[in-house]
Protein 1
Amino acid sequence: MTPFRIAVFASGQGSNFQALAEAAAAGRLGGATVDLLVCDKPEAPVVKRAQALGIDTYLFRPKEYDSREAYEAEIASELARRGIDLIVLAGYMRLLTAVLVKPYEGRMINIHPSLLPAFPGKDAIGQALDYGVKVTGITVHLVDGGMDTGAIVAQQPVEMVQGESRESLEAKIHAAEMKLYPQAVSAFAEGKVVIEGRKVTIRH
Ligand code: GRF
């Protein structure tokens, strides 16, 4: 079987990165392998996690480049060199340009901590709490260059209790993400994802 190689992009804690790497190591990622961590913050905790798991890292500092296109072009050649099939954004805190979005159209996904199109952008959990919704959730979507606007691949609701604290909601959302994201990546690796415009179907 040809390997299905993924690169995870992350900027922070890396709990989703870890869940994906562990799923891959346990053979629970549809045969996919986590080949690379791409990180724009070399001091982020996710980098230590990658090192502990023996996963290669591609680290860079955006301010050392003239433009986003410039560092993305370097990342694109690294991904091409490694034959990366799917880019998985997991807490990567930067918008992407066409340099990466175009060649990976339909092959780049993100996880967002709300039921999109509600609460796109930064601090979706805080936005949901401030708005007072009773149900929020998580969304896996394709990346299209906009802010959390790509076609939806998978969603899962997360119910809120009265007086829900931010900490408890964050914990529930993270737990849900760590299950749903590996399932979504597996579907891609197994070739089960059918994309027709904004309609994405997962074949069983
Ligand atoms: C997750 O909540 C994800 O939904 C959002 O960023 C967060 C990353 O958390 N895009 P972690 O770095 O995986 O712990």
Protein 2
Amino acid sequence: MTSSLRVAVVGAAGRMGGAIIRLLTTTPGLQLVAAVDRPGSSSVGQDAGALAGVPSTGVRVQDQLAAALATSGAQVVIDFSSPQSSPQVAETCARAQVAVVIGSTGLDPASRERISAAAGSVPVVMAPNMSVGVNVLFKIVEDVTRALGTDYQVDVLEAHHRLKKDAPSGTALRLADAVAAGREGPSPLRHAREGLIGERPPEEIGMAVLRGGDVVGEHTVYFFGEGERVELTHRATSRDQFARGALRAAQWLAGRAPGLYDMQDVLGLRGVK
Ligand code: NAD
């Protein structure tokens, strides 16, 4: 019998941390061996399973990742904490030689650079959206942009729950990247529109953001033509599909060479025609 993959979860007390722990505990071949949240969190010392609303796991939430890795024998870390903490999580994993899946969004260029440097010594999957459907959408958006050509103007609209901290969402920005990848020439982003803005430059990608209630995540890419419009929409109805993708990424990382990967790699979508 092959042994289970030993997983540590960072951001264990959060919305995504909880979804991942719930799914982890019922997925064959995966074992929760450590759970970490920020120092000062009321979750520290509590059972990670009880915190996530499932039976006790025997794993208590800790507040120091390095110590948790040293004692748990974790083979992969899944981190959905925050854009401020994820670079340090990646560096700690690199020092401990443990693979890491990073789901935090809103990372600035300097933070991405630190994660990229960590990926020089351990395998890292970083993706602003771990859902299979959204990652297929990235691919479709690039292909549709290429097929429709320069006569169509593109805007992206996203909606999320009222507690989301970054805007636009990492997924909306990645959708804009997919549009840019399907075009020749520059595609500057236009964040919202107000006032006497004049005619719309055809090459800009408009970004509009809605926030409120409990919306898990909705994204639409509009392709506006003369006399018609194409809309590609993804609606997330639960966090479980992000968690499922994160676990899939963790399994894919086992035994992988150091490097920075994303969900296109995990799902085998890169270069697919
Ligand atoms: P949340 O605020 O509910 O949870 C974050 C958790 O991380 C909290 O428990 C917090 O205490 C903990 N944390 C903060 N700093 C920490 C540190 N230094 N060390 C350890 N733990 C720390 O947020 P959430 O809704 O679960 O989202 C978390 C992140 O994941 C956000 O950046 C969000 O945008 C992103 N997200 C990504 C995806 C994806 O598919 N990639 C999907 C949903 C959310």
Protein 3
Amino acid sequence: MSPIGIDAISIYTPPYSLPLTELARARGIDPLKYTVGLGQETMSVMPPREDIVTMAASAALPLLNKNPELKNTISLVIFATESGVDQSKAAGTWVHNLLQLNSKARVIELKQACYSATFALQMACAFMKQTPHQCALVIASDTARYGINTPGEPTQGCGAVAFIVKQHPRLIEIEEGAGIHTEHVMDFWRPPYLDTALVDGKYSTRVYLTALQTCWDHYQEATNRQYESHARFCYHVPFCKMAEKAHERLAKESCSDNSKHALIYPKLIGNSYSASLYISLASLLENDPEDLSGQRIGFFSYGSGCVAEFFSGVVAKGYQQYMAQEWHHHLIQSRTPLSCPEYEQFFLLNSLKSTESYSTIDSAAGSFEFLGVEGHVRRYKKKQSGL
Ligand code: COA
């Protein structure tokens, strides 16, 4: 059986951020609660000219620019999101159009809170096992909105990740064997008439840890692997302290800093829901000073509601040459820091609207812009300066 997994990866986050010290000052909270207690430094803020479609297309575009042949070989596009923009049409169909992909490629949208990108990855691996000359484009794109002056507010953020799944991958081979846990819990959900999540935050952190333990036990039974069989770990990161607590749980008394490079991007981007685990993977591969070739990474994916999965992958030899750390560092470092009132203005402008037509106000964006809605139809544009 040919190895299968992630062949290329690209992340995107919009060009604005909110320093959490600024948010703490505005809310009259000790900044250490956010920076130490939650482990977050800044969070990306989505401007009105962006949405999950523009973020997704901006994440995927560099992959196509690097390898123009992809347009002919992508036969499946899976878009994972919690923040869907339409009840019927898959967000991936807009991305398919913006990127001018092959009309023979299937497009589908998946939803299960922050878990869906993991199912997208597993589904893409299963499809691509049968098709040696094709590949799948998996995209996860989300904006985490909890609301102004709520406990969840400092754990917002936004971002997207795009990756190519194919045989003989150049980055990570996904291994057989996983631990799964599904349970009906109301820890986080969002009815169609709300644009902010309903969340029982403390309960969700407890369910996350219980699901981790159950998945880990099942994964160990299924694979006979121990903690020491893994060189690094990547977790779903609603906020960095959550991933650190998860890691402490698995590491027990072992050396526990083998997840820290996976948290460099999430600490700056904030929560990106379905994208967060895979932004964490990019963070690890691009910032870990050690050569991880041939090493096993453990992945924990958690989607409230809840579905969770622990699985693993082995890093390919020479993966470093296919990463884009300079570009990703630039994206994150060049964001414009907002004041709290400016962030609040963007937050309100991005609220769910029930009008059939509106235009978005001018604001910086990535390679694509969301112009607004005309007669119920969303309008997008590729920027002239787009990469
Ligand atoms: N200095 C350092 N740490 C401080 C502090 C200070 N001045 N003040 C508080 N803290 C610590 C607390 O001790 C706590 O750490 P602990 O959990 O290790 O004890 C942490 O900061 C958070 O404080 P807490 O009072 O629990 O925060 P909160 O009630 O305001 O809400 C969440 C925290 C995570 C529940 C909230 O942000 C939330 O609901 N987020 C969205 C849901 C979510 O992300 N769920 C995760 C699973 S997917």
